[in-house]
Write a structure and sequence with these properties.
The complex is a heterodimer. Chain A contains 35 helices and 20 strands. By secondary structure, chain A is α+β, with helices and mostly antiparallel strands. In chain A, helix 4 packs across helix 5. The longest helix of chain A has about 70 residues. The N and C termini of chain A lie far apart (about 125 Å). The N terminus of chain A is likely disordered. Chain B is mostly helical. The radius of gyration of chain B is 17 Å and the shape is elongated. Classes of the chains: A alpha+beta, B mainly alpha. At the A-B interface, helix 29 of A face helix 2, helix 3 and helix 4 of B.
Chain lengths: ~1000, ~150
């Protein structure tokens, strides 16, 4: 039995051809056929299996598995036979035992009988044997049972110990014996018969086929509804056996054919290749194959293929089993998709989170950067300004050289920090655009003036504003000025000779498209343009040609050159007049293009794409040679884009570059007549000068020859001098104050204007100390816009050299202005009487101011009046104490309103203004004060809700009050780099700023710069 | 005399620790420079002014943040005040707390603001303790005749 089990295990592990559970159950069933009833219920409709029996026999004979299968069957059968034989033997044994027992009994009985006979043999009485009497109890033997000999006592009717009795008894025993013998015989017969039967009945083939049949039934039972196909293919992959619960093919269509021969479509080749692979490798494998066949459509099967080996170990075919898993695959795919989606979503989420995190980090980093930059900037500006002050003291050449380097590097770092601040402001969205009214012409002029002021090269700076550009537009002047400044300083940096210029022109929608569309065209035009530029003497024709170019580009643009031939002098005024004609009834948006062009080194084509990137310069070489932060253009581009415009560049190497930015501006319908007379007269001055060259010059053209800053102010003052007699006197007074020059380079043409020049130049040459402030004061009055941070001392040489050059210009310009000045004043009076009065008033004021300047300076030196506007008590206490310590007494007010009131009622030499304050902040207060200084009235303040309270003790025409209208230096006090920037301070009219908390150092610097 | 020297050393150590641990910055030196014979109590005066002012601002802040709808402009204004005065006396850590407070204020983040207020209060009371200790030490030194 045990032996058998081991055998069985071995067979099972050899994964059988038959289903496993059948293998286990069927062949070990004690009572074969017990399940037959159940099987009978199964009605097998079709024969789903198609068998090549010959092959099966072959397999059974030849394949290893087949033979082991067979061997197992035979063993099993043998075992069962042996079992049956043993059972029979046991039965036989029992029988023979019983037989022995019965014989033993018989012997006992016989002995007992003998004893009885002996005891009764002593009886004297003769025994008569009567045959008839034997039949007395004829049915007796019938009572004897089969197996057990009964011990029952015999009941004999005859009297005991009689002859009859004994006879009866002997007969009875004889009968018993006979019956026993007879029974024995029957049993032996039966036994023999049974043995015979046994031998006859069990032929192994019969039994085997029965078993097989049962296994088959089980197979059917189990596989009946399973979506499983089972098959066997020979080594040519021809089907030899196939079980398919959903047969759609006949036997002859399958047996002996390959997959490819049976059906076609997707997956067939794959499955065949797979089977072949298994066949070759000799290793079972599973694979999922999707079929797309005409026979059963699109279905996916999980196919298991195992090789079948011959006894010799060769593969002779494959068994294959396929299960349809289409739905599962679909489900799985769906699940996979869902999972994938979830994964994607999760990834997205985490990505988003990361981005948010990064953004937050970036913002924070930028903030930190901004704060840090500010922290760095404050002390650095201290260093730089100290160095600047140092450069004005008596130092030798070498020291000056060192200082120069110090200053330039310091400036560079400052610039870098400012740029970083600007960029981070733009990028972090902190920068808010402000819409303010401004005059493009003034801006262009101002920018050029500033640039000219710090010009260190022999370059011509020119500006041209086309006539159709409105006098006043609305935009963020601060940012626009910054862009212009950046571009101009860039242009100057990379230009060694020739010109740098700004051109402003209106762009109609059409031409805007044209510009966008035909960039190349424009570039071509530019080259023509730059060709003209190279002729040095034709700067005017250049700007003319520039405007022609614009005309060409813009087509319908109205060229108003010819419209105003009789009023070429007063540009501002004439522009106003001209503008009035085509003023729009309501606020409209106008696109204005601005070209900043130069005749510099140009930009190589390959550098153009990265030009506007941060920290990018054309090349490392360029960076070394020219320095700079590489942030300027990036800032410009960002600013322009922030304002809704675009910045482009076209360039030719060695010929120059043109940066063009186009921005939308609002054009106010209202005419603003409050032209700053100062500006006007300034412009008159230039144009008078320009007109001497060319009468046909259009308005809005400015030219700054090399080193013309000095000439600028002098020409303007000369114009003014012609305008107003008192003024001339005043300037003479200044002149005298400075002392008449004995300079050998004094000009031969000793006309009034040239004397003016002289006086200024003398002022320059006399600048070795206190006189500087005097000159600065004077010039500040004349045009507050210009940059006066000129290191006068170091540039004296230049001036000397170049004086000859612009001497001619002045001569001409002043001459012509002399003629035309009448027209100016006439025009002014005609257009607006009040305005003219204002101008006059202003001139008077300035003359007074300049005449009494020297005296006043001394006064202010003694006791400058300082106003502190600060809302924080502690800050007030600290600042006040510091000021007291430095020997100054200060007035303190707590907000912007009070500041305005304080300025209204009293005069100050310096205002320290906190930027961030309740009610009216420092910026607004500054604007209001500036507005008063420029307009002479407090209308703006009244509009802002601060009523003008006329000081009771001072008369309105008190000179004290007039004096008030000088530009009071206002110093902003800022805390935070982002919200209260220096630029904001400057934009709102502050002169400088110090960062809070106030320290001795920054207060001292400030006082030194502005009141001492 | 030894006592004076010891006191002096203690004072110096304590002051250094205040700078090292970032409680004070150079602005406090500026403040001390403003103190002279004519104004011997200047630092103490200014600082107690700062304490008064800060106390007021902090309670105003707490009140403002308790409101149903927080007026962040008001809160910002208070914090700005506190920031200004703390920077003026060189109370660096209070100032820094103010800066982060204002950031939350810009974001209108009430939780952040409340957290910052707590932090600010902590920094403030720390500062107050430190400065009071400093003044006490100075006073002791003065009384000891140093």
């Amino acid at each position: 039995m045990e032996n058998n089990n081991v055998e069985e295990m071995d067979i099972e592990s050899l994964s059988s051809m038959w289903p496993e559970d059948i293998n286990g159950k069927q062949f070990n069933i004690e009572k074969p056929g017990a399940d037959q009833a159940m099987l009978e219920d199964i009605f097998i409709i079709e024969e789903p299996k198609i068998v090549d029996f010959k092959r099966l026999v072959e397999l059974t004979n030849y394949s290893e598995k087949g033979s082991s299968q067979l061997a197992y069957l035979v063993k099993n059968w043998e075992y069962r036979q042996a079992y049956a034989v043993r059972l029979l033997r046991e039965e036989l044994d029992t029988l023979s035992k019983q037989k022995q027992e019965s014989e033993l009994k018989e012997l006992e009985i016989t002995e007992e009988h003998r004893f009885e006979q002996e005891s009764y043999g002593g009886d004297k009485r003769p025994i008569s044997v009567l045959d008839e009497e034997y039949d007395i109890l004829p049915d007796f033997p019938r009572k004897i049972k089969h197996v057990v000999v009964e011990n029952k006592g015999l009941e004999i009717e005859a009297d005991y110990d009689t002859v009859i009795y004994w006879k009866q008894r002997a007969r009875h025993l004889e009968e018993l014996l006979e019956a026993s013998i007879q029974r024995e015989q029957i049993l032996v017969e039966k036994l023999q018969e049974s043995i015979k039967n046994l031998e006859r009945q069990s032929s192994p083939v019969e039994e085997l086929s029965q078993i097989l049949k049962r296994a088959d039934h089980y197979l059917h039972f189990i596989l009946e509804t399973a979506p499983v196909t089972i098959g066997h293919q020979d080594k040519d992959l021809r089907y030899r056996f196939m079980y398919n619960p959903y047969p759609s093919l006949q036997e002859e269509e399958i047996i002996g054919k390959t997959d490819a021969e049976i059906f076609t479509g997707g997956g067939v080749k794959e499955v065949q290749d797979f089977k072949r692979e298994v066949l070759e490798k000799g290793l079972p494998a599973k694979r999922e194959i999707t079929f797309e066949t005409q026979l059963f459509g699109a279905k996916t099967f999980l196919i298991y293929v195992e090789p079948v080996f011959s006894k010799a170990g060769e593969t002779i075919g494959v068994n294959y089993m396929g299960m349809e898993i289409t739905d599962q695959v679909r489900k799985r795919e769906k699940m996979a998709k869902v999972r994938e989606e979830i994964a994607v979503q999760k990834a997205k989420e985490s990505e988003l989170n990361k981005t948010i995190h990064i953004t937050e980090e970036t913002m924070r980093a930028k903030e930190v950067l901004a704060t840090m930059s500010h922290e760095i900037r404050s002390p650095l500006s201290g260093v730089v300004s100290m160095a600047e002050i140092l450069s004005t003291t008596n130092i030798d050449k070498e020291q000056r050289q060192i200082l120069k380097v110090m200053l330039s590097t310091g400036d560079l770092i400052l610039q870098l920090i400012n740029d970083i601040l600007d960029l981070s402001k733009v990028e972090s969205g902190v920068l808010k655009l402000e819409a303010t009214k401004f005059r493009p012409r003034e801006v262009v002029k101002g920018v050029l003036q500033t640039a000219a002021g710090s010009l260190q090269k022999v370059l011509t700076l020119e500006g041209h504003v086309a006539d159709d550009v409105p006098v006043q537009v609305i935009g963020d002047i601060l940012q626009i000025r910054r862009i212009l400044n950046n571009l101009i300083s860039n242009a100057i940096k990379y230009t060694h000779k020739g010109k740098v210029g700004i051109k402003l022109y209106k762009i109609t929608a059409l031409s805007c498209d044209l510009r966008e569309g035909s960039k190349g065209n424009i570039t071509a035009d530019r080259s023509v343009f730059s060709a003209i530029i190279r002729e040095p003497d034709k700067c005017l024709s250049l700007s003319q040609s520039g405007s022609d170019l614009n005309g060409f580009l813009e087509g319908p643009r109205k060229n108003s050159h010819d419209d105003e031939p009789e009023t070429p002098v007063i540009n501002g005024a004439s522009m106003d007049g001209g503008e009035e004609n085509h003023r729009h009834p309501s606020e409209t948006t106008m696109w204005i293009g601005c070209d900043v062009y130069d005749t510099g080194i140009g930009i190589p084509e390959n550098a153009l794409p990265t030009l506007f990137k941060k920290y990018m310069q054309v090349s490392a070489d360029t960076a070394r040679k020219y320095g700079g932060t590489g942030l300027g253009l990036a800032i410009c581009k960002q600013l322009v884009e922030l304002m809704g415009g675009h910045l482009t560049v076209s360039s030719q190497e060695h010929r120059g570059s043109t940066f063009t930015f186009v921005l939308p501006y609002k054009v106010s319908p209202q005419c603003d007549n409050s032209d700053d007379p100062d500006e006007l007269s300034d412009m008159n001055g230039h144009d008078a000068m320009l007109d001497s060259h060319d009468d046909d010059i259009s308005s809005g053209t400015f030219i700054f020859g090399p080193r013309m800053l000095g000439s600028l102010s002098s020409s303007s003052s000369s114009a003014r001098a012609q305008n107003q007699l008192p003024n001339r006197v005043a300037f003479n007074a200044t002149h005298k104050l400075n002392g008449l020059s004995d300079d050998p380079t004094s000009f031969p043409g000793s006309s009034m204007p040239s004397k003016e020049v002289n006086s200024l130049k003398d002022a320059c040459s006399a600048v070795d100390g206190p006189a500087t402030s005097c000159q600065q004061e004077t010039s500040m009055m004349q045009s507050p816009d210009s940059n006066y941070k000129v290191t006068v001392g170091s540039e004296r040489e230049y001036q000397h050299k170049e004086y000859g050059q612009f001497q001619d210009t002045f001569k001409v310009s002043t001459c012509s202005s002399g003629v035309e000045s009448k027209e100016v004043s006439e025009k002014v009076r005609l257009t607006d009487c009040q305005e003219a009065e204002e101008i006059q008033e202003r001139f008077e004021r300035s003359s007074q101011c300049s005449s009494s300047k020297g005296q006043e300076i001394i006064e202010s030196k003694l006791k400058p009046r300082i106003l502190l506007v600060e809302d924080n008590k502690i800050n007030v206490v600290v600042a006040q104490s510091m000021m007291t310590r430095m020997g100054h007494k200060i007035d303190v007010v707590n907000n912007g309103v009070e500041a305005v009131r304080a300025v209204q009622s009293s005069s100050y030499d310096l205002i320290l203004m906190d930027v961030c304050m309740p009610v009216v902040d420092g910026l607004q207060a500054t604007r209001l004060i500036r507005s008063f200084e420029e307009m002479g009235n407090w209308d703006a303040a009244v509009k802002a809700g601060i009523e003008y309270q006329v000081p009771q003790n001072t008369a309105p025409n008190d000179p004290q009050l007039n004096l008030l209208r000088n530009r009071i230096p206002i110093i902003g006090m800022t805390t935070n780099a982002l919200s209260e920037s220096a630029d904001e301070c400057f934009a709102n009219g502050m002169d400088s700023f110090i960062s809070k908390p106030v320290t001795f150092q920054n207060l001292k610097e400030c006082l030194e710069q502005y009141v001492m | 005399m030894d006592g004076v020297a010891q006191l002096k050393k203690r004072l110096a150590d304590y002051t250094t620790s205040l700078y090292d641990e970032g409680y004070l910055d150079d602005q406090f030196v500026q403040l001390q420079q403003l103190q002279d014979e004519s104004n011997p109590e200047f630092v103490v005066e200014v600082v107690s002014l700062f304490f008064q002012d800060s106390q007021r601002l902090l309670s105003e802040l707490a009140k403002a943040l308790e409101q149903q709808s927080v007026d962040f402009r008001k809160v910002d204004a208070y914090v700005h005040q506190l920031k200004g005065s703390s920077s003026s006396i060189g109370a660096q850590r209070v100032q820094r707390a103010c800066i982060s407070f204002r950031n939350y204020c810009d974001d209108q983040n009430i939780e952040g603001c409340l957290k910052c207020l707590q932090q600010l209060k902590n920094e403030y009371s720390l500062m107050k303790n430190k400065l009071e200790t400093l003044f006490k030490l100075e006073q002791q030194l003065l009384e000891a005749g140093g």
